[in-house]
């Protein structure tokens, strides 16, 4: 049986402003090469605070299967 977990997904509209980093209580988001934010799925708890903080609306939550 698969277990589902919500995690943040950052889309190409990301402007790497860093607002999501400040919003994430688990330090699960980082800016990659100064151009896009990336999410560490192991740290992300799917709370959505990064998405709320994103001025570009480029973050959504998705359910992923945990193997």
Give an overview in words.
The chain has a two-stranded antiparallel ribbon with strand order 1-4. Strands 2-3 form a two-stranded antiparallel sheet. The termini are close together. It has helices spanning 19-23, 49-53; strands spanning 3-10, 29-32, 36-39, 59-66. The protein has two helices and four strands. The model has no long low-confidence stretch (mean pLDDT 93). β2 and β3 (36-39) form a beta hairpin. It is an alpha+beta fold. The longest helix has 5 residues, at 19-23. The chain has a single domain (3-66), classed as Alpha-Beta Plaits, CATH 3.30.70.20.
Strand order of the largest sheet: 1-4
- Give the proportion of residues in helices: 10-25%
> Hey, roughly how much beta strand do the residues contain?
35-45%
Structural class: alpha+beta
- What is the CATH topology descriptor? Alpha-Beta Plaits
Number of helices: 2
Give the tally of β-strands.
Answer: 4
- For the record, the count of structural domains works out to 1
Shape: elongated
Largest sheet: 2 strands, antiparallel
Whole-number average pLDDT? 93
CATH class: Alpha Beta
> What is the N-to-C succession of helices and strands?
EHEEHE
The rounded distance between the terminal residues' Cα atoms is 9 Å
Residue windows where pLDDT falls under 50 for at least 5 positions: none
Annotated CATH architecture: 2-Layer Sandwich
* Rg from alpha-carbon coordinates: 12 Å
């Amino acid at each position: 049986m698969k277990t589902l977990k919500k995690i943040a997904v950052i889309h190409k509209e990301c402007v790497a402003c860093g607002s999501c980093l400040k919003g994430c209580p688990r330090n699960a988001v980082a800016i990659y090469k100064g151009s896009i934010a990336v999410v560490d799925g192991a740290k992300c708890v799917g709370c959505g605070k990064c998405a709320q903080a994103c001025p570009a609306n480029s973050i959504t939550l998705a359910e992923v299967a945990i193997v």
